[in-house]
Design a protein that fits this description.
With about 300 residues, the protein is mainly α. The protein contains seven helices and two strands.
Length: about 300
C-alpha cells in the first residue's frame, strides 16, 4: 500500500494568475507557476504519512513472521498466532484515509484562499482606476465651486483622499449619500462663473462606487468562507494527528516485537529521538576513532621502549 498524493494539486476549475505573489505566511496557501502550494503543516504530515505507509508495505510480512517465530513457544494447543500483517495493513489504510481527507480539505481551503486574494487584488484595481480619480475630481470641483471650508462641510473629507479600498469606499459613500439626499441645500458659489452640478457629480461617482461596493461585499463573503474552510481543515488536521499517532505507536510496537532492527525502524522515530540517537552514534564513532589512535600511539611507544 503506497501513498501517492500530489503535493501541489490543481484547484479544480479555478483560474490562477501566474503573476499572483505568495502571501508570505507559512500556513497560508501560495501560488507558483499557476499551481497551488499546500500549507507547510499539511506538507509535513503528508510526508510522515507516506513514510509510515511505505514502511508498513515493505516490512509487514517480515514483522509478522518475526512475531510468530518469537512467540511460537507461547501458543497453546489449538491457538494460532494473530494475523499481524493484516492488522498492520488496516493501520496503514486508516492513515491513508486520514491523510486523503486532510489533503482534500486543504485543497478546498487553498483554492478559496487564492480566490480571496484575487478578489482583493481586483478591489485594489477598481479603487485605483475607477473610484479614486473620480472622487478627487468631484472633490476638487466642490472646493472650487464653494470654497474649501464650505466644500469640506459638504463632502465631509479632511486631509488626503484615501487610496485603500475600504476607507475610500467610506469616503465616496458619504459623498454619494449627501448628493442623493432629497433635501440637499447647496451653499452659494463663491463666483458667478462657478457651476454647481450635483447630478453630474453623482453620475460621475456612482458607477465606480457601486462596483467597488459590490466587490468588497463579495470579498467579505469570500473571507468568511475561507475562515470556515480553515476551521474545517484544522479539524481534519487534528483528526489525522490522532489517527497517525495511534497507528505509529502500534506499528513501532509490532516492528519491535517482530525483531526488526533499529536501522529498519529508524525513520519511524520522533524527530527528538532521531537527533538523540544521531548524537550517540556520532559520539560512538568519535570514541572509536580516538581509541584506535590511542592504541596505535601506545603500540609505537612500546616498540620504541623495546628498541632501547
Amino acid at each position: 500500500m503506497s501513498l501517492h498524493i500530489d503535493s501541489t494539486p490543481e484547484p479544480g476549475d479555478a483560474r490562477i494568475s501566474k503573476h499572483t505573489k505568495p502571501l508570505g505566511l507559512r500556513d497560508e496557501p501560495t501560488v507558483r507557476k499557476g499551481r497551488i502550494k499546500r500549507s507547510t503543516r499539511v506538507l509535513r504530515r503528508l510526508k510522515a504519512a507516506g513514510l509510515l505507509c511505505g514502511s508498513i508495505e515493505k516490512a509487514k510480512g517480515k514483522a509478522a513472521a518475526g512475531f510468530r517465530e518469537r512467540f511460537a513457544a507461547e501458543l497453546r494447543d489449538g491457538e494460532e498466532a494473530p494475523d499481524l500483517a493484516s492488522a498492520l495493513e488496516l493501520a496503514g489504510r486508516s492513515v491513508h484515509r486520514a491523510i486523503e481527507e486532510l489533503t482534500a480539505a486543504d485543497d478546498v481551503y487553498c483554492a478559496q484562499g487564492v480566490r480571496r486574494k484575487q478578489l482583493k487584488g481586483a478591489c485594489v484595481e477598481v479603487a485605483r482606476w475607477d473610484v479614486y480619480p473620480e472622487l478627487v475630481d468631484v472633490r476638487r470641483a466642490i472646493d472650487t465651486a464653494f470654497g474649501r471650508q464650505e466644500g469640506q462641510h459638504l463632502h465631509e473629507m479632511k486631509g488626503k483622499t484615501q487610496r485603500s479600498p475600504e476607507p475610500l469606499l467610506t469616503q465616496v459613500r458619504g459623498l454619494v449619500t449627501t448628493l442623493k439626499h432629497p433635501k440637499l441645500v447647496l451653499p452659494r458659489p463663491i463666483r458667478s462663473s462657478s457651476r454647481a452640478d450635483p447630478e453630474g457629480w453623482l453620475r460621475q461617482l456612482e458607477p465606480g462606487y457601486l462596483k467597488l461596493k459590490s466587490m468588497l461585499d463579495e470579498l467579505e463573503v469570500a473571507e468568511r468562507r475561507e475562515h470556515k474552510l480553515r476551521e474545517e481543515r484544522d479539524y481534519e488536521l487534528e483528526s489525522f494527528d490522532i489517527v497517525y499517532g495511534e497507528a505509529l505507536a502500534f506499528v513501532r510496537s509490532v516492528f519491535q516485537l517482530g525483531g526488526l532492527s533499529d536501522r529498519e525502524t529508524w525513520h519511524l522515530l520522533p524527530n527528538v529521538q532521531r537527533r538523540r540517537l544521531r548524537g550517540k552514534a556520532r559520539q560512538a564513532r568519535e570514541a572509536r576513532a580516538e581509541g584506535s589512535w590511542a592504541d596505535s600511539a601506545e603500540l609505537d611507544a612500546t616498540d620504541s621502549a623495546d628498541d632501547v
